[in-house]
Write a structure and sequence with these properties.
Order of helices and strands: HEHHEHHH
Helix content: 55-70%
Distance between the termini: 39 Å
Radius of gyration: 14 Å
Protein name: HEAT repeat domain-containing protein
Strand content: under 5%
Number of domains: 1
Number of strands: 2
Shape: globular
Structural class: mainly alpha
Largest sheet: 2 strands, parallel
Length: about 130
């Protein structure tokens, strides 16, 4: 059985989405794994396929197939929470160069204030620049 990280990669490279969708808890675990991989000196650094998967999560615009219930304990829709986490991981990894157009879209489209504010902050910072 492929890991969620591998399934996210397949979603990008092969357009192969798990038939039953992603389980919320597993997706959050995979994003935490990617977040750890984006840290400097990570034991298993973020790979190009991982960056592609994160970019694709941002491009899904709420169409990420989910199974089961997502927790209703957050103030933003689950899709936007996934997008916010993906943005933060890409920022941490210094890979915002891949999402300039997404940042602009998130800033101008309706959405949660937190997601819009993050997109605007990253755009104002220079978006695609690598961190110093």
């Amino acid at each position: 059985m492929p890991t969620i990280r591998e399934q996210l990669r397949r979603m990008v490279t092969e357009r192969d989405v798990p038939p039953r969708g992603f389980a919320w808890g597993e997706l959050m675990e995979a994003l935490e794994e990617l977040e750890d991989a984006a840290k400097p000196l990570a034991a298993a650094p973020l790979q190009g396929e991982d960056v592609g998967a994160l970019v694709e999560l941002l491009n899904q615009k709420g169409r990420l197939p989910m199974r089961g219930q997502t927790p209703a304990t957050h103030s933003m829709p689950p899709e936007e929470l996934v997008q916010l986490k993906a943005l933060k991981i890409l920022e941490q990894a210094g890979r915002l160069d891949r999402v300039q157009d997404v940042l602009e879209r998130l800033d101008r489209e309706p959405g949660s204030p937190a997601l819009k504010a993050t997109a605007r902050r990253l755009l104002n910072r220079g978006g695609g620049e690598e961190p110093a």
